[in-house]
Design brief:
This protein is of the alpha/beta class. Helix content is 32%, strand content 21%. Helix 5 runs antiparallel to helix 7. The longest helix has 24 residues. Bound molecules: zinc ion.
């Protein structure tokens, strides 16, 4: 085992590095803006890692050193690498798609790099020492600007045949009602994807209409009698309960851990468990739906843990 685990959270707007020691304690953490251009982004990651290595005083684990501590490097990205080509797919940071990000980072840093979907990193982090600790099957869901999901089963990321397991956002919203129609178009090419109903911007649009809004403050607005906020939250809770009902029927996770900005809505944890049972084929339905423990840090912590697990599925 290496002495340090480095994780990179490669987000659409920022890049963060974290170094954990053997005990899981944070040693280094730094965040820089994502330049938003592929070649510059590779350089930005390289520079962040080298700076962190110098701060910690360690070398990559594959260069075994008798005198210096060693480190591993994991990277969480939006999207995933194709198991066939190694090229990034399905990233909402679309300029990252079709690039060999893993190979390019390995070349730039001259060290092995493990890359995983950011929602898988979130699920891994929460399963390892977060809100999913002690549960065998953890479904981690990020309800943010998009909607991502990851499954950790028995401390392993379930990658799947195409490395897309857990892409919960691109399943059609089940048990559609008139309020859900017409089925909304998704960037993935399909219609009716849950992401288009359950991501943060979708909630904001339901509340305030079309435009570039944020859903923050919606619960306070609803408490103060804002009818649009009340209706938007009613719709949201019902849709999230349907989405959870479908996944419980299919996967039956031991816990569902929510992350992303929308997971800060306190009413989710009161309302959705009450709405869920009607959609689940067994009774009583007791699946815990909980908020994450590590917040915005889960992605980067999960990336740092990537070398501590044996991934299942194709690689
Ligand atoms: Zn979609």
């Amino acid at each position: 085992m290496a002495d340090y685990r480095f994780g990179i959270d490669f987000g659409g707007t920022k890049i963060e590095v974290l170094a954990l020691d053997r005990a899981g304690k944070e040693i280094v953490r730094e965040r820089v803006p994502n330049p938003g251009k592929y070649e510059d982004a590779v350089i930005a990651v390289r520079d962040l890692v080298i700076k962190a290595e110098n701060t910690v005083g360690c070398v990559p684990a594959h260069r075994m050193s008798a005198t210096q501590p060693t480190s591993t490097l994991g990277v969480g990205i939006p999207g995933s690498l194709s198991p066939e080509t190694g090229l990034v797919r399905n990233s909402n940071a679309t300029w990252l798609n079709n690039h060999a990000f893993g190979r390019d980072l390995e070349a730039a840093l001259n060290r092995p790099v493990r890359i995983e979907n950011d929602a898988n990193c979130f699920a891994l982090s929460e399963a390892a020492d977060g809100a999913g600790t002690g549960y065998s099957t953890v479904l981690g869901v990020i309800l943010g600007t998009g909607m991502g999901g990851g499954i950790v089963a028995n401390a392993r990321i379930l990658s799947g045949h195409h490395h897309i397991a857990g892409e919960w956002g691109h399943i059609p919203l089940p048990w559609a009602t008139e309020d859900d129609l017409p089925m909304r178009k998704c960037f993935c090419g399909n219609e009716g994807c849950q992401e288009r109903y359950l991501c943060g911007p979708a909630l904001a649009v339901e509340w305030k209409g079309e435009g570039n809004h944020s859903p923050s403050g919606i619960e306070d607005a609803a408490k103060n009698g804002d009818q649009a906020a009340i209706r938007a939250l009613d719709l949201y809770m019902d849709r999230l309960a349907r989405a959870c009902g479908q996944v419980v029927n299919f996967l039956d996770p031991d816990v569902i851990v929510l992350g992303g900005g929308v997971s800060n809505l306190a009413s989710i944890y009161e309302r959705v468990p009450k709405l869920l049972p009607r959609h689940v084929i067994t009774s009583p339905c007791t699946t815990p739906i909980v908020q994450n423990r590590h917040g915005d840090s889960s992605g980067v912590r999960g990336a740092a843990w990537l070398w501590d697990i044996d991934e299942t599925g194709a690689s």
